[in-house]
Specification:
It is a single chain. The protein is rod-shaped, with a radius of gyration of 51 Å. It has two domains: 101 residues; 69 residues, Alpha-Beta Plaits. A hairpin with a 2-residue loop joins β1 and β2. The protein is built from two helices and four strands; from the N terminus they run αββαββ. α1 packs antiparallel against α2. It has a four-stranded antiparallel beta sheet, covered by helices on one side. The chain is of the alpha+beta class.
Length: 195
């Protein structure tokens, strides 16, 4: 019988297996480091691109800051102009208000039966004093005033019979209190700044 010593063959095979495993391990480690290096380079490139984009956007935003400042200035001027227009419109209304009021009072007066002595308008409160031929004329005058669009809440404050001895005539003196459209409480302007 022939005896073959297989030990050197097995030892060589074992060495070959160990060498193969070490080679696979080293190749795997090399591949992982290569993969990590690739991702690191890719992330650095992405980060550099993002930094460049951020700088570009910051520069672009700086150009818009001037535009935004101009827009805010235009908005402020527009608000200022609107407030001035509102004041002008209010002044126009207030300017024509007394004319309308006097016109309506003159239209409400019954001809040759009623005479006015005093008109006093303050802050939307109108006081009228006058003389009428009789109480019915005062009532007619009050009804005419109530129909007026610029006068409301007509109240008779007092009446007094007066004898005019020179003319042998009895007349009625009266005082009326009314509310007018023209007065509104002043509203504080919110956020208005004076220069």
């Amino acid at each position: 019988m022939i005896k073959i010593n297989l030990l050197p063959f097995r030892a060589a095979r074992k060495k070959e297996n160990i060498r193969r495993q070490i080679s696979i391990y080293l190749l795997t480690v090399f591949f992982l480091f290569s993969l990590m290096a690739y991702f690191l380079i890719d992330l650095n490139g992405t980060l550099a691109q993002l930094r460049k984009d951020k700088e570009d956007k910051t520069r672009e935003l700086a150009t818009y800051a001037d535009t935004n400042r101009k827009i805010e200035e235009i908005k402020r001027k527009l608000a200022e102009i609107r407030s001035k227009l509102e004041v002008i419109q209010q002044l126009e209304r207030n300017k024509t208000g007394p004319v309308h009021l006097l016109d309506e009072i003159s239209l409400a007066v019954p001809e040759d039966k009623l005479w006015l002595r005093m008109l006093d308008e303050k802050r939307g409160s109108l006081s009228i004093e006058g003389t009428a031929m009789d109480n019915d004329t005062v009532a007619l005058f009050m009804d005419n005033l109530k129909r007026s669009p610029h006068i409301k809440d007509v109240d008779l404050s007092s009446t007094k019979l007066r004898n005019l001895a020179d003319y042998k005539l009895n007349v009625t003196e009266f005082v009326l209190n009314c509310k007018t459209y023209s007065y509104e409480e002043a509203k504080p302007a919110a956020g208005s700044a004076r220069r």
